[in-house]
Amino acid sequence: MSGRFPNLDFPRTFTDKVQVRKLYDRDPLFPVMVDKHAVKKLVSDRVGDDYTIKTLWVGRDLSEVDWNLIRLPAVVKPTHGSGQGAFLEKPEDISALLRSDLPAKWLATEHHLCNREWAYGEFEPQLIIEEMLQGATDAPDDYRFFVFSGEVRMIEARLRREGVAYEAYFSPDGTRLDLESGYIPPAPGHVELPASLAKMTSIARQLACGTDFVRVDLYACEERICVGELTLYPGGGFPGCVPEAWDKKLGDMWDLRAKPQKSRATKLAGRLQPTS
């Protein structure tokens, strides 16, 4: 996963196939799937409104928001980014955000150029304010369903306990796998999967319909199931995006739709070959 060049001509691992998708797959549905605002209609069409996180406002200028209509706590984030956003838990948080230059920086981030994730550059970035999901005692548990050609093959759980983030991996039947990404520590002890796992699996399969691979991120929030996002390029295909021990195994599960051209590296190597 690191310290080597990806094999773009004959990709075999999951991480190599993410790179090939980034470079060559131009599915017109991809920009809708990664747009945090537009994807909600897709979710509604495929599984219903009950599984979307409520949108409180969307636009490009937070000065236009009628904050009297925004019920706290809430979350504000860009529709095209990753790892950006702010929690608004009290009026002072709103004031601090409006005084900062963070929203402008979020909108100016050319996410599609940073990691070459094409789909993020195919729509105008906006800011979206959503209701804040809350678990019983901490942030809601995040379950990431790796769906290949309509079948869930692995589930990654991202958990937060007493402010500390953990991960755990499971097979589709809920058996915990002895895997870790090295990105965050594995969850200690027994991890209880939600009783709604079968329902979540069904939702993930419906949302992934028609794709060779997509990671469907769902929140289990007390009695609710909410769609977090649809992820086409997990971690940019870089170290920590999947456990290295399963990089090849997951790659075998991915029947890559894109037909890659010869890579620039291969073309260059061909030009450098002696002619006699």
What does this protein structure show overall?
The protein is of the alpha+beta class and 276 residues long. It has nine helices and ten strands. The strands form two sheets. The chain has a six-stranded antiparallel β-sheet with strand order 8-7-6-5-9-10, with helices on one face. A hairpin with a 7-residue loop joins strand 2 and strand 3. Helix 1 (14-24) crosses helix 8 (247-253). The longest helix is centred in the first third of the chain and has 11 residues, at 14-24. The protein is globular and about 50 Å long. The relative contact order is 0.19. Mean pLDDT is 90; it is low at 263-276.
Q: What does the secondary structure layout of this molecule look like, with pairings?
A:
Layout: H1 14-24, H2 30-34, H3 39-47, E1 55-59, E2 74-78, E3 86-88, H4 91-99, H5 102-108, H6 111-114, E4 127-131, E5 141-148, E6 151-161, E7 164-170, E8 176-177, H7 197-207, E9 213-221, E10 224-231, H8 247-253, H9 264-272
Antiparallel strand pairs: 1-4, 2-3, 2-4, 5-6, 5-9, 6-7, 7-8, 9-10
